[in-house]
Sequence to fold (315 residues):
Amino acid sequence: MFLLSVERLIFRIIFILAIFNIAMVYKKSISIDVAGYAVCCFVGLLLMALGQFYRISERSTRLGNVLTASGLYVLFTIVGSIFNYVFLPIYFHPIDDILMRVDDLVGYSWPAVVTWAATYPWIGKTFYVVYMTSLPQLLVILITLGFTGKEKELHSFLLTGTIGALLSIAFWVLFPTFGAKAYHTLPEWVLNAIPLAVDPAYGRELVRLGLEGVDHLSPANILGLIGFPSFHIFMALMSVFFVPRHRLFIVVIGALNTLMFPAVLVQGGHHLSDVFGGMACFAVAFPLSRYIVKTMSKTPVCNTAQQRPLGVAAD
Fold:
């Protein structure tokens, strides 16, 4: 494969995580939905293979960049989700009690916020739609950066997401949290009034997994384990900072992610601190990825014979 320097770095991270996951799954005797994960991996590898074809053949370097980045995105999502799960059951006591005390100090209550949103169903439904746009936003930005030839921005985008996910998982392993939804109940009329991306039942299942661990892994039933930091907030900041500088994109992405902050609190079942945790995580991952991309872009290519397939070709 003819991968660029940052792509090689991300691919190596994926490979290392995959080996670690296999070892942990074997050690803990966790059964795997082989067919389900095989399909997901096939999709990721196929996207990368197509990207390599377009890059090496010089038919379209930009399409090659988009497809390669998309393949890496898919593969990292797969190994990253498994990586989070193999640390179950949790080794340390959850810090939710500390975060709930912080909520109490500032007068924040997740049930009260959700109840308010349910009192005005159009607000609750709007927040649900906004909350569900996180991943589509990132996909649109990835494709746009690739097709507009912003190669360094694309690589910084990929690396920011990779670093942020690893930081979030590492923090969660040491200081696990399940979010406010795991420790509160909601009136039945609230649950019937608006759709909720996560609800108390979801939270209770997270607590059960945290205490008992997992005996079977399938891409069909992977849950978002991490409460603090909020990765939805992290993704919202990725969208805002990497949005292409075009008026339409800025207006749409800006509006969506202005609403994303209250949407995360209502739909994500988070403590208020989780939002600031997501901001802090991004504040570390974003400049670090920028630095790495800048440093690696200055690394000379020793073998000029290898440079041609990686060079910028006319589309």
About this structure: The radius of gyration is 21 Å. The CA atoms of residues 125 and 237 lie 22 Å apart. The longest strand covers residues 31-32.
